[in-house]
Amino acid sequence: MSHQVKGLKEEAQGGMKGRARSGSPRTGDRLGRRSSSKRAVKAEATPGRLGAQRSQKARTGDSPSPGSPRRKQTGRRRHGEELGEQEQSKAERTCQGRRKRDERASFKEQTAAPKKEKEIPRKEKLKRQKKPRSSSLASSAFGGESLSEEELARILEQVEEKKKLIATMRSKPWPMAKKLTELREAQEFVEKYEGALGKGKGKRLYAYQMLMAKKWVKFKRDFDNFKTQCIPWEMKIKDIESHFGSSVASYFIFLRWMYGVNLVLFGLIFGLVIIPEVLMGMPYGSIPRKTVPRAEEEKAMDFSVLWDFEGYIKYSALFYGYYNNQRTIGWLRYRLPMAYFMVGVSVFGYSLMIVIRSMASNTQGSTGEGESDNFTFSFKMFTSWDYLIGNSETADNKYASITTSFKESIVDEQESNKEENIHLTRFLRVLANFLIICCLCGSGYLIYFVVKRSQQFSKMQNVSWYERNEVEIVMSLLGMFCPPLFETIALLENYHPRTGLKWQLGRIFALFLGNLYTFLLALMDDVHLKLANEETIKNITHWTLFNYYNSSGWNESVPRPPLHPADVPRGSCWETAVGIEFMRLTVSDMLVTYITILLGDFLRACFVRFMNYCWCWDLEAGFPSYAEFDISGNVLGLIFNQGMIWMGSFYAPGLVGINVLRLLTSMYFQCWAVMSSNVPHERVFKASRSNNFYMGLLLLVLFLSLLPVAYTIMSLPPSFDCGPFSGKNRMYDVLQETIENDFPTFLGKIFAFLANPGLIIPAILLMFLAIYYLNSVSKSLSRANAQLRKKIQALREVEKSHKSVKGKATARDSGDTPKNSSKNATQLQLTKEETTPPSASQSQATDKKAQGPGTSNSASWTALPASGHLPISRPPGVKPDSGHAPSQTHLWRSASGKSAQRPPH
Amino acid sequence: MGGSGSRLSKELLAEYQDLTFLTKQEILFSVHVVLAPHLVDNEQQARSGNEHTGKPIAENTDSSPLSTRAHRRFCELLPQEQRSVEQSLLAQVPFEQILSLPELKANPFKERICRVFSTSPTRDSLSFEDFLDLLSVFSDTATPDIKSHYAFRIFDFDDDGTLNREDLSRLVNCLTGEGEDTRLSASEMKQLIDNILEESDIDRDGTINLSEFQHVISRSPDFASSFKIVL
């Protein structure tokens, strides 16, 4: 089922656990059960088998989340009967059984006595009383006797159960001292009886297995420790978290995640493409594509040229054009073009997989979203404090924001004095959106204009530095100034900061996306232009070579030395040009980010800090103040930077390396900047699940950056004289080539068959059908969810009326009567609500207050013949030994139980 | 960590790891915090000396080496009290020292947190194990169940097992801070508590009990991510 039901189930378990810690029935049960089962271990002959199993079941139901006490009571009672049977069969056991029943009776007295107080010490005491006794019983049961198969099996089960207890101990809300003693007891038990398990030849094997299991646990723990130690920047991020709250820290966690992803991509590209090429490929200067042309040679080492990724850098393994189209290289016969293609594909494949996986794991923990509007106030009340805040200033801001949110929601609830402003707000919002759309269009046009102009510049010869870098500068400036502009405009709208953040993110996203795509379109124009020119250049190259080798005036007998590679005329290699554009864009983006941080944050902070002593107004509190950390801008910057990396990495394999450096430096730099020159947000808000929001944006960007790359690979012919795919019609031809030449023919046939449209179209259709089917299933599930919610609400209403009726009733008669009436009430509800499993005693432990009537109540249940009919009224779907009831009934159950048993105030 | 690892016996450390959601490093670090509180205090004073209002927290960036420094100085101190470490695990640390931890300093629920986790009879001090319990519940990996359980006990100011109106109003006061300007007026408070009870009090008895509380909390998208304290 979907989230809500899961949540309910969890909650049911939680309720159980809550019950578990509340005193007497549990300890009583455990004592009784334990002693009986322990005894059964020894005493059980064949007739006792059934009962023993039952008690086992009861225990397994109990230890992680205790099942219904009433059922256990009946189980215990039956066990008592069994004891009776056994009494007749064996004499020595009778006295034991009697003693045990005496014990139980005395124990009941004990539980009855301190029933009123419900403090922990009492439980402690009980636990302590219980422990030595049960362990002594256990040990007496085992003392020096040989064990039969069944007993062995039982001990094994017990040991397993203890192990489970050990594993789940940490999630029990007990104080440490108690957990320690419980743990030691359990471990002792396990140690003691593990050795007793397995006889003869099995014994050694078993011991060995146990040893290995222990070693394995230890290893796992050490490995976990090691893993947490390996997470980088943990302390830095925690520091930031405590100063700025979780929202700012979420950016850094995202940055760290991104760094990890990029490291993997870098490893992939570096290890499978660049290193083999450098080690085994033809060296620099051997063929034209690996040589700087004669015309550029003298300036190729100038820094200004290198800075633009021209010159020697352009003819290096960092770019697509450097790679040769040789099928195999080196003595390994490494198929480089194939590897290049596959790495390009797997970069996208890995990124998609990792993004979707982390999105899925983010959603798994969360519950349904539609629920949240039911509990606005409670959420504000119970979950609004961010416990990570360790800075008093942030805490003050948080107080203020919580107060504001309380007041706002109260005002919202009253729905007064909001009406008069609604037209103004609407007008302002429309106006703001209008302004922002204007900005977006303007920036898009500006970029298109600039890129067009740059194409003209590129045709001219001596252009200035500014003209050469105009595109990057304009794009970076837009990215720098538009977000603050949007933020200013967004002030008009007066949204809640969390909503405001979403809007802001959406707008900046639109801006970046528009810019990026305009840039791409303009670039594509350029590529097409180059492709059109390619044919003529090809002819020129051909003719040059032809003339060179066949020119007259050369001795025919001596073969001519080959033309120096630097002199061969060559095409413009649009792939490398695209790669260079992305490289430049990335670097300039990085620089602009750093400069913005330095100027906008650090210098401003310095100015405010030091000029404050000699200024006429308070700079810190007044106008310039300190900068806040701009979460949305930074996150989007990161996401778009990543998009550029994805797009560019196919044409510039070195791009990922640069990005890894960039992320590494920006981690340190931004950590320092945020701690040194930013102040916490004025309205601190929590990150909530915006992490998934980031991931969603990232996925979108990934998809969008996949599109142009896929387009160029599938439909543009590669350059004729550079890159690993030169000479082929399309880049993906390399696949076909490999399949034909390197695989056995039948594999080639299979591939050809798979690539057949007759197969692909049905496959796509099938996928559509699957999507449709899953979609409709999820819709129906959510409908079911909504219905269940409605049912719960309806039950709540019914419950309310019940309560009022009961209140009147109890107002009339006082004293002991509530108990009876409550019992009646529960019975009545039981008969009325068929889907409700027998609830009275299950829910009796929900409340500690209910203990008093609860125990006697359940006792009477077991004594009544009615206890026999209860299992019958259980619906068939519910397993008798399952601790969790069907989730949809839980609310009702706990409610009814509580209302029934608690004496009204 | 080797030096201090030997202080806390291996078995005990393993047991602590079994019983809490903490890693070995975290446990050892909390040993430092509890057993050598004066060191942390010194650090803390040094830090708070740097800090006045309105100024950004530039000077506090050096707080990350805190652990290593505390650790080193702790190790220097060890030879004299080598024998007493095991006993000092049982020692009780008074609330004041815990409350002055930088992580808890700004928390409005700090007294409540200490009180809930304290097992001493007078409820005014924390033993090392209590402190571990605290950290475990507030750690990243703790289950939402146990988190909400303790959250309930923290919010239950009078320790009576339910959140009644009195508890809720004290909770609101904690959340809105001490300042006069952020306080809610009496009518606002009443309205707020009414709304909360309307939402969460499923059985309409005027109080919120544990299961109702957990019901609400389990639906919250961001409770588990914010109910965290890291040292």
UniProtKB/TrEMBL annotation, chain A:
Write out the similarity annotation: Belongs to the TMC family.
For this protein, the record's PANTHER family field holds: TRANSMEMBRANE CHANNEL-LIKE PROTEIN 2, TRANSMEMBRANE CHANNEL-RELATED
Transmembrane domains' residue ranges: 257-280, 336-356, 430-451, 471-492, 504-523, 591-611, 650-672, 693-714, 750-774
- Which portions of the chain have biased composition (kind: Basic residues)? 69-78, 124-133
What's a single GO MF annotation on this record? voltage-gated calcium channel activity
Q: Which GO terms describe its cellular component?
A: cuticular plate; plasma membrane; stereocilium tip
List residues of the TMC domain.
573-688
- InterPro entries, sorted: TMC (IPR038900), TMC_dom (IPR012496)
Name of the featured protein: Transmembrane channel-like protein
Q: Name the segments for region: Disordered.
A: 1-143, 797-905
Q: Where is the composition biased (Basic and acidic residues)?
A: 79-107, 114-123
Which intervals carry biased composition (Polar residues)? 817-845, 885-899
Q: How does it sit in the membrane?
A: Multi-pass membrane protein
Which UniProt key words apply to this protein?
Answer: Membrane, Transmembrane, Transmembrane helix
TrEMBL record, chain B:
Top-level lineage group = Eukaryota
Against PROSITE patterns, the record matches this protein to: EF_HAND_1, EF_HAND_2
Region ranges (Disordered): 45-65
Q: State the Pfam families in the record.
A: EF-hand_7
InterPro entries this protein is in? CIBP, EF-hand-dom_pair, EF_Hand_1_Ca_BS, EF_hand_dom
Q: Name one GO cellular component term.
A: perikaryon
Residues in EF-hand domain copies: 143-178, 188-223
Q: How does it sit in the membrane?
A: Lipid-anchor
What is the protein's major site of localization?
A: membrane
Alphabetically sorted, this entry's keywords are: Angiogenesis, Apoptosis, Calcium, Cell adhesion, Cell cycle, Cell division, Cell membrane, Cell projection, Cytoplasm, Cytoskeleton, Differentiation, Lipoprotein, Magnesium, Membrane, Metal-binding, Myristate, Nucleus, Repeat, Spermatogenesis
What are the GO BP annotations of this UniProt entry?
Answer: angiogenesis; apoptotic process; cell adhesion; cell division; cellular response to nerve growth factor stimulus; cellular response to tumor necrosis factor; cytoplasmic microtubule organization; DNA damage response
Sample GO molecular function, one term? protein-membrane adaptor activity
Location relative to the cell: Apical cell membrane; Cell membrane, Sarcolemma; Cell projection, Filopodium tip; Cell projection, Growth cone
Protein name according to UniProt: Calcium and integrin-binding protein 1
- Which species is the source of this protein? Macaca nemestrina
